[in-house]
Amino acid sequence: MTAAVPGGAAASLRPGPTGPAATGSGPTGAERAARLRRLALTTLDANWEHDHTVPSRTLYPHQWSWDSAFIAVGLAHVRPDRAWRELRTLFAAQWADGRVPHIVFNPALRVGSYFPGPEFWDAGRADGAPARATSGIVQPPVHAPAAWLVHRRAPSEASVAALHRLYPRLVAQQRYLTGRRDVGGGGLACIVHPWESGLDNSPAWDAPLAAVPADVAVMRAYRRHDTAHADAAHRPTDLDYARYVTLVDAYRAGRYRDEGLLGRHPFLVECPLVNAVLGMSEHALARIATVVGADPGPHRDRATRITEALVTRLWDPATGTFHPRDLRTGRLIPARTVLGLMPLILPDLPPRQVQSVLAEACSPRFGLAARMDRPLPTHDRTAPDFEPLRYWRGPSWINTTWMLWRGLLTHHRPDLAAGLRESLFALVDRGGCHEYFHPDTGAGLGSPAFSWTAALLLDALADG
């Protein structure tokens, strides 16, 4: 694995020329594809933990919600039984109100081995919590699209049976997010914590987080484990974590109830990624419904309404991209991040928005091209607060790259999709299956042997 390097110290990541060696159609490309496939499979097998896959053996020793969905997509190509077990294990910890917790804790690990652990969340005292120890918040609902992709990649009687079992739970998840979490009343789900977006310390959250009272001294009561395994300069700051703890304290004090959030919770944001995935999930559920004998019509109708609400509430014609909306202030958050590109995963996104978001993605801010000199960053490269080493404040991540790649295919841009896919391969070929990557050099950052990097690599390799 490539070690992390300081920003700008090495040459930019420059994939080789297009053609057989780059695309995987010639001997060199075939050899690289086989090598990457072996690396991905080895990573996933090493991270399998009896009924689920841990994101990594170092930083993340439990089961994470959207990680498991991405992991299932990759496992469908090599271990389809495990793919279904991954999803089944996660949804066994679903709450009675339909929420799928963002962490399901492994009871075999000692108390205090991870922060924030089950004792911090204290979710068992909340109404409707499962018997298994979990967190009390959610992550983007990528699970219905994942279930559909697993079935499509490895269709069988067993996969149909798995869809029958999972379908009502997926519907309940959607109902929770479109119902209890529609705090703004405009047809979109809101998040109550940056962790729910999946992009924990994105600059998109700086403005609403600045209004959250926090004292760094609060962190003295806890021991962060992430900085024991990764460079602190690459992770969220202690001030970030103090605010994260403050937000959990506020939500936990109400026993994770969602009634009256607008009047009492200090962080309420409608996120473009979360809601684009929410709409994509309804499209996936419509397809699943046709397999399990349910009516796909309501899912299609809800998908249309979510896309319309996304454009109405989160689209900014002045910038030509999507932005989160802070429900506490009623204003769009100005930071231009990869979140604004994610609505391209919606097949019914109107042409005006498609073209404008593509222009944003191809601008110097993100550098999407048919032949990319550098990987896709998670924040505007030209912004003064762009940080190439710090978590979601600049580095390149495989999951956002993979989602945009699928969106480009959806909107019939195979040229740009091919460039992004090649960039993904070049990152892992040079840096290994790392958690994230330097957006200029391609050096691996964060945890090595990261599961969703391996899984989504397998999926991208299969679509050659």
Automatic annotation (TrEMBL):
This is Mannosylglycerate hydrolase MGH1-like glycoside hydrolase domain-containing protein. It comes from Micromonospora auratinigra. Residues 15-31 have a biased composition (Low complexity). The keyword Cell wall biogenesis/degradation does not apply. SUPFAM superfamilies: Six-hairpin glycosidases (SSF48208). Residues 1-31 are annotated as: Disordered. Keywords: Glycosidase, Hydrolase. Residues 60-453 form the Mannosylglycerate hydrolase MGH1-like glycoside hydrolase domain. The keyword Secreted does not apply. Belongs to the glycosyl hydrolase 63 family. GO terms for molecular function: Glc3Man9GlcNAc2 oligosaccharide glucosidase activity. GO terms for biological process: oligosaccharide metabolic process; protein N-linked glycosylation. The lineage of its organism: Bacteria, Bacillati, Actinomycetota, Actinomycetes, Micromonosporales.
